[in-house]
Amino acid sequence: MLIVPPYVSFDSFVNPLFNERTVVKKSGNYGSVVTDMPIGLISLSTYLKKHTAIEIKLIDFNIVLNKMESFEYSSFSALFDDFLSAEEWINYTPGIIGISTLFTPSYYNMIDIAHVARNIFPNALIIAGGGVPTNMYNEIFRDSTCFDALCYGEGEKPLLGCYVSQ
Questions:
Q1: CA gyration radius, the chain
Q2: Rounded Cα–Cα distance for residues 7 and 69 (Å)
Q3: Nearest alpha carbon to residue 2 among 91, 136, 139, 124
Q4: Distance of CA 62 to the CA centre of its chain
Q5: What is the DSSP letter of 150?
Q6: Yes or no: is domain 2-165 CATH 3.30.200.20?
Q7: How many angstroms separate the Cα of 1 from the Cα of each of 17, 78, 100, 140, 152?
Q8: What digits encode the pLDDT tens for the residues 61-82?
Q9: Segment 8-57, tens digit of pLDDT
Q10: How far apart are CA 163 and CA 61, in angstroms?
């Protein structure tokens, strides 16, 4: 399972500043969530599928937030828990959960996803990669005990090694 955390903090999403772009949902106005093509995760997925017989699921929480007609959660952590607890994901039972974090506003979302994933999928190997883990690995290991590993730089070959050894 590969996950992209929201690119916006919870506070910026539920309480956008007067000069920020907003989106209107049935439950109110929210900060606009920018989406982009998750090139890093697509590259990882393509590489792994080329070299192994593996099923990979991708969750981009930026898209999840944009598709929601209303937002009734008290935190992103509650959203992550509700979403990852859905039958679709529970029956998937991933062996590895990779969280790609490119932007610093996603830092605490990455930490929250790891905590939720550790509770829901206790036997999964939880890893993170991208610009934030590459540059903030000390802070991540200080702030969370949920990560089994962090990827420094490109992760295709190390991740392939994880799948081959399972």
A1: 16
A2: 19
A3: 124
A4: 9
A5: E
A6: no
A7: 34, 19, 11, 20, 19
A8: 999 999 999 999 999 999 999 9
A9: 999 999 999 988 888 999 999 999 888 878 888 888 788 778 888 888 89
A10: 24
